[in-house]
Amino acid sequence: INAEYMGFFPSPTADRMPQGDYIELWRKRHGFRFDHFERLRKKEAREPHRAAEYAQKVRGLRAKLYNAKRYAEKAQMKKTLKMHQEHNANHAVEKAPEVALPTYLLDRENMSHAKILSNTIKQKRKEKAGKWQVPLPKVRGIAEDEMFRVIKTGKRKRKQWKRMITKVTFAGQNFTRKPPKYERFIRPMGLRFTKAHITHPELKTTFHLDILGVKKNPQGAFYTGMGVITKGCVIEVNVSDLGLVTPNGKVVWSKYAQVTNNPELDGCINGVLLV
Question: How many angstroms separate the CA atoms of 201 and 211, rounded?
Fold first, then answer.
């Protein structure tokens, strides 16, 4: 048995092995190679081609992992670009008219273009991500037993695959029920709501508005899809009657609001508009 190979005796070459940051030390003393930065630039330029070639060649689980990694990188890159992107926006400029304007032209303003970050895009990005500054940031979790009631069916009442939702739900005007025989989740008519009492936080006024849909239920995506409305749920309401307009002068048709009460206990939906 080679005792030196097994590690019983130190190798004579052990002291001569490089220890520590020898490359950095060499560069501090002698500097870089003459073509170091050019080689580095060419290597970086070859990287997209190498990545594309590998993506076409890789198969199976490695391909899945690699594509997921590349997708995350591209998404982050797009977010960064969008964040720094500047959009043209108009703002009014006071300019003395050279000649007297007629009465019907006095309201018109001369517009000039300035580059600013678009607030509309920021708002859309927040809405897409499902993140808002809400009055109730945390809510109590609801157990499945509390949310559903088991309905026994069949001649002997032995089948227990149907569930009745015990919370308030929203179903749109075009909602069509499945045939009762095949309907698994039952939404009772008495707990279907189409209107909500929404308070505007700045105007300190409450309005009776139509519900357009359930945007996000904090209990989970399944309840959002089912249209279940619980405390802390973000709903979309019709605000066309309030006369709200955007900075560009367009009418705002819908906005999001958060439910602040327990609708199944109070018999109505109360919420605060997310301005």
Answer: 18
**How do 159-165 and 205-216 pair as beta strands?**
unpaired
Q: pTM for the whole thing?
A: 0.54
Report which DSSP code applies to 121. Answer: H
Sort strands 195-200 and 270-273 into parallel, antiparallel or unpaired: parallel
Residue 39 C-alpha from the chain's centroid: 41
H or E stretch covering 68 = helix 60-84
Q: What is the mean pLDDT of residues 7-33?
A: 73
* DSSP type of residue 101: P
Instruction: Give the Cα separation of 275 and 267 in Å (integer).
Output: 26
CA–CA dist 22, 123 (Å, integer): 51
Q: From CA 88, how far away is CA 118, in angstroms rounded?
A: 8
Tell me the pairing of strands 228-229 and 168-169: antiparallel
Token couple for 21: 């940051």
Yes or no: say if 49 and 78 are a contact pair by the CB < 8 Å rule.
no
Q: Judge whether residue 128 has pLDDT over 80.
A: no
DSSP string, 122-140: HHHHHHHHT----S-S---
88's enclosing H/E stretch is: strand 87-92
* Residue entry with tokens 């977010």: 79
Name which of 227, 242, 237 is nearest 192 in CA terms.
227
In whole angstroms, how far apart are CA 88 and each of 12, 110, 114?
A: 71, 16, 6
Give the span between the Cα atoms of 191 and 266, in whole angstroms.
Answer: 11
Residues in the chain: 275
Amino acid identity, position 259: V
